[in-house]
Amino acid sequence: MAKYKIVHDIEECIGCGACAAVCDNWVMEGDKAKEIETEFDEIGCNQDAVDSCPVDCIKIVEEK
Prior knowledge:
Elements: E1 4-8, H1 18-22, E2 26-29, E3 32-35, E4 39-40, H2 46-52, E5 58-62
Antiparallel strand pairs: 1-4, 1-5, 2-3
């Protein structure tokens, strides 16, 4: 089982593309960003995506 999971509030996403610019797990689909994979053993560049989001619509939660 993965250690971390991405929680992305797509309704809050403004489509700025910052997450996709800093992490290859993120892509733009139309006017919204979308993660490719949602569960990980290592956070990797997804933390950069979280940190770059101006509306804080991306969170990483640790799986229990």
